[in-house]
Write a structure and sequence with these properties.
The protein is built from four helices and 15 strands. The chain is of the alpha+beta class and 264 residues long. About 13% of the residues have low confidence.
Length: 264
């Protein structure tokens, strides 16, 4: 059973009082430690791996707007450039996430900053600057929030198809794919099955709207079998099981789909 977000947040607060040093656990190891202390399991290659395997990933503003900034949610810092991005992630467009921490709730603890001044904290992380597991605040450079697949956030009811694309969705920066297809393209409107393919073998983004500018998305593993409802202008409206185990109806770039009748 997955630990709850609240129990992971409690483990994070406890870690501050224990006094773990940064040498004992860096930021990634700290998050994994909290998951284990709460009764779960977690094992990643690094912070970039965490971001790419997230059940949900978005900016802080998006997390607030969608009610996802809850205890136990991950917090990330994305660098302005990809200069130090590991080669395995080059070109995937997600960016370089260099640091991770945990949101623990408003005024969850009091800790001192690097100048020794006491402050109320809503974040805990393992800080190289502080040399220890320490309290932090949302104003301390965090750019993104995420939900870990290994943590139960308790309010995932309705995260399924309802958060995918509705039949009438029209994205401000995308295209309306809800209208009828024109005559002469009947094959693209017939439901059929395809397999997700990925150049690097990693998960592929399933976006709420048919646009690369859409920031709300989920991930579908390479090799997953999906149902395609229709396709147009390089985008396919599909139903797929995402990496968090929920089935959603949303958009994927058609270049990442290989139709079953086309497979050898």
């Amino acid at each position: 059973m997955k630990p709850t977000g609240e129990s992971v947040a409690a483990a994070a607060v406890q870690a501050v009082s224990v006094g773990y040093t940064y040498d004992e656990m860096d930021c990634q190891a700290f998050v994994e430690h909290c998951a284990r202390q709460a009764g779960g399991a977690m094992d990643y290659l690094g912070t970039n791996d965490m971001a790419r395997r997230a059940a949900w990933l978005g900016t802080l503003d998006e997390a607030r707007a969608q009610g996802r900034l809850v205890p136990g949610a991950g917090l990330l810092i994305r660098e302005e450039t990809d200069a130090n991005l590991p080669a395995r992630y080059a070109g995937d467009g997600l960016g370089d996430f260099s640091h991770v921490g945990l949101y623990v709730g408003p005024d969850a603890l009091t800790d001192t900053d690097k100048n020794g001044n006491a402050r109320s904290c809503d974040v805990v992380h393992s800080s190289a600057t502080m040399g220890r597991v320490a309290g932090s605040t949302l104003a301390n450079g965090w750019t993104h929030a995420m939900w870990f697949q290994e943590i139960d956030y308790g309010n995932e009811d309705g995260l399924g198809v309802d958060q995918g694309a509705d039949s009438g969705d029209v994205a401000d920066s995308g295209m309306d794919m809800s209208d009828e297809l024109t005559a002469g393209t009947p094959a693209t409107s017939v439901k059929r099955y395809a397999v997700v393919v990925s150049p690097d073998g990693g998960p592929v983004k399933l976006r709420k709207s048919a646009s690369t500018e859409e920031t709300l998305y989920w991930l579908v593993n390479a090799g997953a079998r999906v149902q395609v409802e229709r396709e147009r202008d390089g985008w396919a409206l599909i139903r797929a099981i995402c990496t968090d185990g929920y089935t959603r109806r949303a958009y994927m770039m058609a270049q990442y789909l290989e139709y079953e009748n086309e497979r050898e």
